[in-house]
Design brief:
Length: 317
């Protein structure tokens, strides 16, 4: 195994502010090093760190016996083509607790995973010999771009201060002709009327720990209320389900084909409800605006899904 200095020099153009050694969860005595390019300063992603550390195993397929994350990786972000990862050096931006990292280390030659929050310390893939873990801000990743074949960024861009600038930044971290995979929250005509956006100005000012405790207490009760008193009185179609989601504005995986266990559905609902209401930023974009952004960058071979708002493009050069 390479010494830390050599590993840093191989993938980064700057030295980290510190190198932190952490024990790998569930592997007694195994420790790894995390390269910290943020230091002691606070970061707006701290609420994500709290939720992922507490609910580390919820979205890790091999820990919860589901294929929900794999399905989203393959059919969502990768748009049906996992071969893009074969033999690649992949830069994953915003890994959280490692729900996708856990697969990427299997598919890729090397994965450099970036996460600004403390969630990185419980990443499910820590300890993998082909994983390089670093704390950094999306806009300030000192990566050697010529080393990166694929940039993978899921569930992150809209949670930055400037979604369009975040998309542009992704293309600065991949070699010319490399591939960028990302998604964005959709901004559609009805988005301003979505209950979540009316409540977020208040909830995002709450202490994330307090809000999480409230979610743990109330989400299961609200799910039962919804199933008994709301859903039965609405049409069993997309329109009816969307109305129900606005009346009871919490995450709901009742109809998900991936979960047979009720407790698993409840845990996902709690986690996603916290994710809906606690982040500092939530800035969706229109499909057209995203395509215009990619066009302005000179991105080629754009593959875009208007339903999932997942995008794949080849970097210019």
């Amino acid at each position: 195994m390479q010494e830390p200095e050599a590993r840093v020099a191989e993938f980064f153009v700057a030295k980290p502010k510190q190198i932190v050694t952490v024990e790998v969860p569930d592997r007694d005595g195994v420790a790894v090093q995390i390269y910290d390019f943020i230091g002691q300063s606070s970061h707006y992603s701290s609420s994500f760190g709290l939720q992922w550390k507490k609910y580390r195993a919820v979205q890790i397929d091999r820990l919860n016996n589901t294929k929900a994350t794999f399905a989203h990786l393959k059919e969502g972000i990768a748009q049906g083509d996992l071969s893009v990862f074969d033999g690649a050096v992949c830069l994953e931006i915003g890994s959280g607790a490692g729900r996708f990292t856990d697969y990427l280390v299997r598919f890729c030659k090397t994965v450099v995973t970036i996460e600004p929050s403390e969630a990185l310390t419980v990443n499910a893939a820590l300890g993998s010999p082909n994983l390089v873990a670093a704390q950094a801000d999306l806009f300030q990743i000192p990566i050697r771009r010529k080393k990166i074949d694929v940039v993978f960024c899921r569930g992150v861009t809209q949670h930055t201060r400037d979604t369009k600038a975040a998309i542009k930044a992704l293309f600065n971290y991949v070699r010319p002709g490399g591939i960028v995979l990302f998604d964005v929250y959709p901004l559609r005509w009805y988005t301003p009327f979505v209950t979540k956006y009316w409540l977020r100005p208040f909830t995002r000012r709450m202490n994330p720990v307090r809000f999480t405790k409230l979610a743990e207490r109330w989400v299961p009760k609200l799910l039962r209320f919804k199933s008994r008193y709301v859903t039965p009185f609405l049409p069993d179609n997309n329109w009816g389900r969307n109305i129900a989601n606005q009346i009871v504005p919490i995450a709901d995986f009742t109809r998900s084909p991936h979960f047979q266990d009720e407790q698993t559905r409840i845990l996902w609902a709690i986690l996603d409800t916290v994710d809906m209401y606690t982040p500092r930023y939530d800035r969706p974009m229109t499909f057209r605006s995203i395509l215009h952004t990619l066009d302005s960058l000179g991105a080629r071979d754009v593959k875009a899904n208007k339903t999932t708002f997942c995008f794949r493009a080849v970097a210019p050069g």
